Amino acid sequence: MSRWRFVGRTHELNRLLSAVRSVDGRGLFFSGSAGIGKSRLLREGVDALPRDRYAVWYVAASATTAALPFGGLVQVLPADQPQGLSPAGVLRWAVDVLQQQAAGRRIVLAVDDAHLLDPPSAALVHLVARSDNATVIGTLRNGEQIPLPIRALWTDDLVDHAELSPMEPADTAGLLAAILDGPVDAGSADRLWRLSAGNPLLLRELVHAASGTGELTSTYGVWTWTGRLELAPSLTDLIDTRIGQLTPEVRGVVELVAFGEPLGLHLLGQAVEPADVETAEERGLITVVRDDRRLDVRLAHPLYGEVMRRQCPVSRTRRLQARLAQLLEEVGTRRRDDLLRVAVWRLESGTAQDERMLLGAAVQAFTRYDVPLATRLARAALDAGGGFDAAELLATILMFADRPDEAIEVLDAVAADLADDQRRSRWLTVRGMVSYWGLSRESTVEEVAARGAELGDSAAQARVLAFEAIMRLHRMDTGAALRLGQTVLDRPAASVAARELARCTIAYLHTVQGQLRRSAVAIELVQAAAGHWRADMPYLQLALELARGTRLALAGDLPGIDAIVADEFADLAGAGDFRLGTGYLAILQAYAARLRGESDTALRTSLGACAVLATSRVYAGLAQAERAQAAALRGDAEQAAEAMAEADRTHARGMAVLYPWLEQARGAVLAAGGDLPGAVKHLADLAERLRTDGFAGHEVHVLHDLVRLDQATAPLGPTCSDGSRRTVAQRLAELSEQVDGMLPPLLARHARAVADGAAEDLLAIAEAFAELDLTVWAAEATATALHLLRDRRAPGATTARERLAALLGRCGQVNTPALRAGTPTLSHREWQVARLAATGATSRVIAQQLYLSARTVENHLQRIYSKLGVTGRAELGAALRAIPGHDGADPGQTLG
User: Per the confidence metrics, is the pTM higher than 0.70?
Assistant: First the structure.
């Protein structure tokens, strides 16, 4: 982990360069906290200035030179100063020296840490800023005493002054990738961003500490942080310096906030003196924020808490936590999270004795999808005598923590404590869930069904039936799943959780069958009842997301996918290490990015999903299939094949209902590898299988993949009574009247236009795809239209070419069979000639650069014009931009 590349800060860097390059050359100073990136930003700005136009001096002031006259500018001024000059004379002499050395160029004086300048240096900087041909830029640290001449720079309106804010999450993720030389999964990046508060220096120290202790691991090329924080000595020293020396009273304030944040100001005032709170706030150690009608106290930086908690003796830690619990219990646990906070404090302080409180808190933690915390609380409740209820909850949480064997042990330990049918049904369903999804035992379905039938209580039976229904769905017993799900909905005694779990099963079936409107209604009903089922069955959210995400994906509703990826569940799952949730949402996010042509994002996000789900078999195969699709989109046949092999290896047989996604990915992988006949046969067979299974929602997309492989007129399916077979386009037309939504008719139009060779229709369809943000499909339709127009020498070819170039400009690296089929083949030499000609180089210059004769160059150009369908050099640039991969390092490899 050497010096990292400059990441983010694009707006700030542009502003800094503008301050230098503008006509008036007005300067700019950035203020910010230590480590926020001020010095690096200044250095990047200075390095970007051409030295033939600017005379640039970079000065790094320091405490060492602050006591020496002109010590801050020792790197700039000559060693020998004239003797006998007055202070004003020395300043004028210094300015003259700079002017002479500039030799007519504009002076740029960059001062890092200008607050450390000695008085004469500060005065000289001010004087330079007043010069007509000079610009002063620099940095200042917040909270430091600023020399008056420097402060006067903006009060006298000579420079602008701006605050450098912490890095945004996206920039932090980029910086992490630069430090680790590889992408970091979204959850880890978010946690590290929060902990570092967007400070690059602290982020680097955190990464160094985590790397040194093995808490950062790479899976499928994606780095993941365990969340366990080790504070290296360098990081501890850095935070200690910021905190400074504290009186015992102020330290007591900071420690209480460290263990209790967010802590109500009123509650804190009952434990410490208000004057000490004020002192801590004045020193920037704590901050007071308003939350609705309450004032909460938090630490000014998350790492302050980490250091204070680590340095606090164990005995004092336990006393402080017990005191916090007592304070909150005395005023009453009125807020939703109060019970959870008291339980954690009691647990940490060793004063937790009420198993009901611990169990209630564990339920709260699980409903927030905080798996590690919920596990600790549930285990503590079990150890405190929580009995069956605690064991059931702990086993459920262990299942979602990828620890199924432990879950089975916990459940078997209370198998003798099944006093009634309600308890038997809960034990049976949790054990069935762990056995089926956690241990991949398909026989679990029959075992659950047989034992559930022995129950006499109708509500207890309904719960078991709801679980049996979703298991049978995942096993592809779709008819039985639908029947069982409807049975649960028809039972008045069924609990809300059982009913909504059954509704999720039915909603998923409606989606894959193409009944998207019915599915949407069912999903809305499940969401509306969330307040009634979440405490009983928080993991039901996964079934809801699977149904909702599948519906949005098959509908081509990319904004809808964006919405669920950004909603509250995504935040909670990420913060609480609920990996099945974050992994599935990452798969959806990668899917949306892929259809938009954002191939880098699609591959990076799908790799992140693979890393997060590496220890779970529920969605692991699905994640690898999406990775295969992303790699195939980029034309990376090797990685696509590798991902497909991993999908086959990790896909659980109990998740058979996901086969359409895996097999559709297999078709893309075959095509990316150049086996187009194999891809066509595989997709045609898959379409027939989907037709047999009644999965019309999926069948539409597989048929469209065949259209994208130029198979719109290919026959498929059973033979009709007249001996003929329907074509792909005809089958899509049939399905467009059966499958809900605006997408199927559009896909059918695409197939018909390809079959008819209707270029104008293809361009209209491409516009419709583009309006839906389906950029890859829009580009492919446009490329097909361009190919037709070019062959016919039609006048619309130029417009089509410009549209294709614009669409490809919105994409990352894309290289699909449909785009390649519409792309003329240029030899490597023709490509070289075309690229040079597009830059305006004459035939003579091209001949010299490529060691060819001028006549050979002209012959190449004529062939290029013919292949690209252009009349001369004026159209050549747009024609090249309409070729996928035209910016590749080896165009001959891209274009054959």
Answer: yes
